[in-house]
Design a protein that fits this description.
Layout (H helix, E strand, L loop, with lengths): L5 H4 L2 H7 L28 E5 L12 E7 L4 H17 L4 E7 L8 H8 L6 E5 L6 H8 L8 E5 L5 E5 L5 H10 L4 H23 L3 H14 L4 H15 L3 H13 L6 H13 L8 H14 L5 H13 L3 H14 L3 H19 L2
Helix pairs in contact: 2-3, 2-11, 7-8, 8-9, 9-10, 11-12, 11-13, 12-13, 13-14, 14-15
Length: 360
């Protein structure tokens, strides 16, 4: 059964990473009522090891902290990391500290090898929770605030208070700008959060009944409350139309609207949508022309310098039986890849395309 939650609903990067389960969140059972709320003092971070940056023993007044809860097994968490790295670079001079808080990790020895593989995609501090799989920080931050899925991001304001809780790619930067400008209203944000939770309950009830039309109306209510969520809501509409309702005409029309509007300048999301449209087994009717448009736009936006976007474009060409073009684009992808592990993967895919051309 398809399960819709706010964590999955608003996480448009994680939605596509999940591919076969477009609106499923990584979940854990949380407390009945949160004891950590917006406006409360931020708990201490209990950390077994600090990686990539200086330890934060306490929250320094005058600085703003982004605490992102993640795990190596969480695809949506990994998809959000390049975005967090961009924020770390953009806001460092404004006194913003980004910390990736590794939680719910079954085997903490996997953390450092994972970070090594990610390379420059992660340029912010990493903190490994004290205790696994449910350590002290997870209890004080995730469980206390009633969070059931990752990635979950917290903003700690200049006074050391919890100012914002949400998905790292849905409203984080907007809230951060307001906090830095001194225009952020915690009371209003709390009221909005309560309204969103009420809508979540309705969405889950409608999903139980597979009442997709009711869910679409609720989606509109979400966007009315927070317009920044329009891209994720638009993607969820597309996924439901294509995967659940199998209304391919409407689904691909929705994809076209996203390409022309909400996602037109979102390179990372564009190439991930292209991959979703090609690779998802549940998608019985694949429109490779639409997938090509998404991938090509991503490559253009990144000036042919993003290996992941090029890889997605090559994959679409390969599926379209345009083998020579696939080889040409995949060769470029491997050439611009800086990460060794990624380059190896791209070269292996390139070899597959060459073998297909040779009829092997």
């Amino acid at each position: 059964m398809l399960r819709l939650t706010l964590a999955g609903l608003f996480a448009f990067a994680s939605i596509i990473t999940a591919l076969a389960s477009p609106v499923v969140a990584q979940e854990r059972e949380g407390p009945a009522a949160p004891t950590l709320k917006l406006g409360d003092a931020a708990p201490k971070l209990h950390v077994s090891k600090w990686i990539n940056g200086k330890p934060v023993e306490s929250f320094e007044k005058g600085k703003v902290y982004i605490i992102d809860a993640w795990a190596t097994w969480c695809g949506p968490c990994i998809a959000a990391m390049p975005h967090l790295s961009k924020l770390n670079t953009k806001y460092a001079e404004k006194g913003v500290v980004v910390i990736g808080l590794n939680v719910w990790e079954e085997d903490q020895t996997k953390v450092e090898p994972f970070l090594k593989r990610m390379g420059e995609k992660i340029n912010f501090t990493i903190a490994v929770d004290e205790g696994a799989p449910t350590g002290k920080s997870a209890q004080l931050w995730m469980e206390a605030s009633g969070q059931q899925g990752i990635p979950t991001t917290f903003i700690v304001d200049k006074e050391g208070r919890i100012a914002w809780i949400g998905h790292p790619q849905s409203g984080l930067e907007k809230a951060l700008d307001a906090i830095l400008a001194g225009t952020y209203d915690v009371k209003a944000e709390t009221e909005k959060k309560l309204r969103m939770e009420a809508i979540q309950a309705k969405i889950e009830a409608a999903a139980e009944k597979k009442d997709w039309d009711a869910i679409f109306k609720l989606f509109d209510e979400v966007v009315a409350i927070d317009a920044s969520l329009a891209p994720s809501i638009g993607l969820n509409k597309m996924f439901i139309l294509l995967i659940e309702k199998k209304d391919y005409k409407a689904g691909y029309e929705q994809a076209g609207k996203l390409l022309e509007n909400e996602l037109k300048d979102e390179a990372d999301m564009l190439h991930q949508v292209a991959r979703f449209l090609v690779e998802t087994e549940e998608l019985e009717k694949k429109d490779l022309d639409v997938a090509l448009k998404f991938a090509a736009r991503a490559v253009d936006l990144t000036e042919q310098k993003n290996p992941e976007a090029l890889d997605a474009l090559a994959m679409v060409h390969f599926q379209r039986k345009e083998i020579d073009k696939a080889i040409e684009v995949q060769t470029k992808a491997a050439a611009v890849a800086e990460d060794t592990a990624m380059r190896l993967h791209l070269l292996q895919t390139l070899e597959k395309y060459k073998e297909a051309k040779a009829g092997k």
